[in-house]
Amino acid sequence: MKQVIEAFYEQFGSGGEIQSFFAPGRVNLIGEHTDYNGGHVFPCALSVGTYAAARKRSDAKLRLYSMNFPELGMIEADLSALVYEKEQEWANYPKGVAAKIREAGYPLSEGADIVYYGNIPNGAGLSSSASIELVTGVVLDAFAGLSIDRVELVKLAQAAENEFVGVNCGIMDQFAIGKGEKDHALLLNCQTLEYQKTPIHLEEETLVIANTNKRRGLADSKYNERRRECEEALGQLKTELEADFLGDISVEDFEAHKHVIDDPVTRQRARHVIYENARTIEAVEKLNAGDINGFGRLMNESHRSLRDDYEVTGHELDALVEAAWEEGAIGSRMTGAGFGGCTISIVPKADIETFKENVGEQYYKQTGLEADFYVVEIGDGAKRLEEEE
Ligand code: NG1
Ligand code: MG
Fold first, then answer.
1. Residue 190 buriedness (CB in 10 A; 0-12 / 13-18 / 19+)
2. Whole-model pTM?
């Protein structure tokens, strides 16, 4: 945090009260491509994330600077005229959050100077964007004394991403980052937003994120295509079953009625969502019963379903996951939208060094790419930091 405050002085000068804030990145343990289908997800907040040093302003200006994108320089905006500007890239996320807070009717008339620093690997599917949104949300909320309910702030951040930035994501990222808690994952029903904090006690094992370093070039267009396919499947099932979301439909009901989905590919997409939703609930039951191996087996099944039914993995993710399975991971799967990005694995602590070495080597052989490995800890949701942090 010290360097962030130093960068703040450099950008905006000293004087006045500078406060520190943090919002984590997130990783989803199981429940993939279920959020926008009203199903369950099981993400956790990470100990890496976005730091912000901020100072209140007495006018309506926002001045934003990211240590990760120094080439974009300082970006200025007026609270009363917030518009999306493509060339401002990352700064559209904070601007969008401010815009949504105001649109929701909160009295936000005074701005802030904010310096951001993120230590989340970029573009890897660990939600650096939602992290920037939520850290901005807590800064603006604290400075204006708004006391916005946390779940509402989560929804405003999602609205910023959907409507201001134009990324059609579900609620999972913002929820995990806004509501996460150290050493817990959240079993979230994405339709009702009911959630259960689940303690994760990994004593002999650890969570490992591995980045394929394959750019997720297709992710956006394929993401929207999958959303459309799911809507089509739901539309056809709807006449048979009373369901507003695929996530409402049980495995039994699906099996009894799947014939109404006439296109076999669309049927496959729906099958992934419905089984993945059931798998997520079952996986959390296993975890609560102390059955980490059972949890890992369901992670593996999740990957196969994303590979074969939902078709969002690709050669790199499959190679990395298969190498992890070979190397004795308790569970391993792709995480996030897919087509590149990261995998999440549960690995025995004692094997971690050989795991990284052998999986890395195998992955390189298969793809010609170097993977990066991160042993991660589950951290807290978005918050103001105390002095010593
Ligand atoms: P990633 O790829 O981690 O950004 C995306 C969506 C999530 C969710 C997952 C799939 C965005 C910003 N987020 O996550 O809401 O749908 O895919 O489970 O697009
Ligand atoms: Mg993102």
1. buried
2. 0.94
| Position 4, amino acid | V
Question: Half-sphere exposure (CA, 13 Å, Cβ side) for 230?
Answer: 26
For the chain, how many structural domains are there in total?
1
- Is 59 assigned a catalytic role? no
- Looking from the CA of residue 41, the nearest atom of ligand 1 is 18
Q: Any known ligand binding at 34?
A: yes
Question: Among 32, 37, 169, 214, which residue has the most ligand 1 atoms within 8 Å of its CB, making it the best to mutate?
Answer: 169
| Residue 66 marked ligand-binding | yes
Query: Residue 11: in which H helix or E strand, if any?
Result: helix 2-12
Q: Is residue 151 within 8 Å of residue 140, measured between CB atoms?
A: no
Residues in the chain predicted with pLDDT less than 70, given as ranges, are 123, 217-219, 387-389
Residue type, 300: N
HSE-CB of 165 using CA atoms within 13 angstroms: 25
Structural domain span for residue 121: 1-199+379-384
Using the Cα atoms of residue 110, residue 162, residue 238 and residue 274 in order, give the sign of their dihedral. negative
pLDDT at 389: 54
Q: Is 287 domain-assigned? A: no
155-176 residue pLDDT tens? 999 999 999 999 888 899 999 9
Instruction: Flag whether 98 is in a domain.
Output: yes
Selecting among 141, 173, 248, 309, the annotated active-site residue is 173
CATH classification at residue 88? 3.30.230.10
